[in-house]
Amino acid sequence: MKLKANLGADAAILLTTLVWGSTFAVARDILDRWPPLSYLALRLPLAALLFAALFPRQVFGARREAWRAGATLGLLIGFAFVAQTTGLLFTTPAKSAFISGLTTPLIPVVAYLLFRARPSRENLAGIILASLGGALILAPVGARGFNTGDLITLGTTALFATHVSLMSVYARRFDVRQLSALQIVVAAALTLAAWVVLRSYAALAGVGSLPAGLARETAPLAWSAPAVWQLAYLTTVATVGVFLLWTWGQARMSATHAAVIFSLEPIFATIFAVALRGSAEWTGGRATLGALLVVAGVVVSELRWGVERREAEGSEQRAAGEERGAVES
């Protein structure tokens, strides 16, 4: 049973990573029409309403402890979403993706600082290989300088790493549906509040007082059939579905192990960018080597879990044999 649970957890986090990879291409299309904060102020509140409709008892009947955990995770992911989209106003998508990739090596550091969780040698080796691979895939060619957007994006790596580390703990303590829903409810409230504050400030001080990127947030949204379908996908599959899978999977693995699987995201993102947008974003041999290193990192990390799985399976078989022997005697 434990073997199946571990395999299921791997599959859940892998599917989460695959869907996340698809969101880069889908969200890039929608952000061509809508400003980032306005997009988040639609996506997350809609996801929160869907969670409340699907799991009303888990949302409205949640106890204080569950709300505290959900609020902690929701504030982390909400601030990370807002900061990441704000950073994109001042830097390039390539640099943003590259800096965000630093979350992978940061997760085991945060997990150790918070919980003294020591990663195995296999996990550490996997993290190093995957991080190097991600750098080769995502490092922007010809990018120079470190600007405000880069600094803001760098701050999101600490938020995401802390979120993943805490998720591994909270997901074991609370109902998966409840924890998934509550953190999205809190993140939705945060992004909606940020949008309202921005709009109110623009109304009082004038749109001209805002930077060009933020001034876009005051413009009417350009609705279209593709935008509606993209928003529906990002709300249902990429938020509600993904957070349920993610929470369930992380309840059954360490934060460091999850980080190694998450490192596959740039590979999936590139595949979807080529498939959905026809983007020629694969930078030849460098990116191919990077992809091989990421896969190698995942395989190396899985070696340790393979040993643990076999040990767990052997323990279960021995326990079952001892139980049968006791019954026969």
3D structure, described in words:
By secondary structure, this protein is mainly α. It has one domain. The chain has helices spanning 2-31, 36-54, 56-60, 64-87, 93-100, 103-115, 121-138, 148-173, 176-205, 212-215, 225-250, 255-262, 265-277, 284-328. Helix 1 (2-31) packs antiparallel against helix 11. The longest helix has 45 residues, at 284-328. The two termini are 26 Å apart.
Question: Briefly, what is this?
Answer:
The chain is mainly α.
Comma- or semicolon-separated keywords:
0% strand; 329 residues; mainly alpha
Number of strands: 0
Strand percentage lies at: under 5%
The domain count comes to 1
Helix % is over 70%
Elements, N to C (H/E): HHHHHHHHHHHHHH
The averaged pLDDT comes out at 81
DSSP summary: helix tally: 14
Q: What's the arrangement of secondary structure elements?
A:
Layout lengths: L1 H30 L4 H19 L1 H5 L3 H24 L5 H8 L2 H13 L5 H18 L9 H26 L2 H30 L6 H4 L9 H26 L4 H8 L2 H13 L6 H45 L1
Helix pairs in contact: 1-11, 1-13, 2-9, 2-11, 4-8, 4-9, 5-7, 5-8, 6-8, 6-12, 7-12, 7-14, 8-12, 9-11
